[in-house]
């Protein structure tokens, strides 16, 4: 069970009052070579910049291997579970996609990343369906520029 479901729920009105405000910042998550290698195997993208530290050090401007952009993006799920509140009466939430997603800086193996979440929209589409839009910035510890910025859309369903 995701930790998000262990949080005390808040009312829909309380959630909607967060629009325009930062909801929170996740903990740091390590993106080490093992995590990158496992991800490369899962998605069958074994480009040397991800899985060959010696070659990446010699042949890339990064100085080491780097995480797949989609690996960094996928970590937004666990980050959101740490930060985003649960709304009373929620039966499920689903990923509806992105209106914007940009990979700004590479995440080098051994780096830690965290997500900063700002609720941009929370609008009922139906009495039992809420469209929630969150602006997410995934920061890299010690780096000036973020790994990515995203305009993430979710649908939250109620009983």
Tell me the overall shape.
Answer: elongated
Helix content: 25-40%
Quote the average pLDDT. Answer: 96
| Tally of contiguous helical segments | 6
* Sheet/helix structural class: alpha+beta
What fraction of residues sit in β-strands? 35-45%
Overall radius of gyration: 17 Å
Describe this protein's structure.
The mean pLDDT is 96. The protein has six helices and six strands; from the N terminus they run H-E-E-H-H-H-H-H-E-E-E-E. Strands 1, 2, 3, 4, 5 and 6 form a six-stranded antiparallel sheet that branches. Strand 5 and strand 6 form a beta hairpin. The chain has 159 residues and is an alpha+beta fold.
């Amino acid at each position: 069970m995701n930790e998000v479901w262990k949080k005390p729920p808040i009312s829909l009105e309380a959630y909607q009052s967060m629009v325009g405000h930062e909801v929170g910042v996740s903990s740091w998550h390590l993106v080490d070579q093992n995590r990158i290698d496992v991800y490369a195997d899962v998605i069958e993208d074994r480009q040397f910049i991800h899985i060959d530290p010696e070659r990446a050090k010699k042949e890339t401007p990064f100085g080491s291997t780097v995480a797949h952009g989609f690996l960094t993006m996928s970590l937004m799920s666990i980050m959101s579970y740490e930060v985003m509140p649960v709304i009373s009466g929620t039966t499920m939430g689903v990923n509806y996609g992105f209106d914007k997603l940009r990979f700004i800086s590479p995440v080098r193996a051994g780096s830690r990343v965290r997500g900063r979440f700002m609720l941009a929209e929370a609008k009922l589409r139906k009495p039992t369906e809420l469209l929630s839009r969150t602006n997410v910035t995934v920061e890299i510890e010690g780096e000036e520029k973020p790994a990515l910025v995203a305009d993430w859309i979710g649908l939250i369903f109620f009983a």
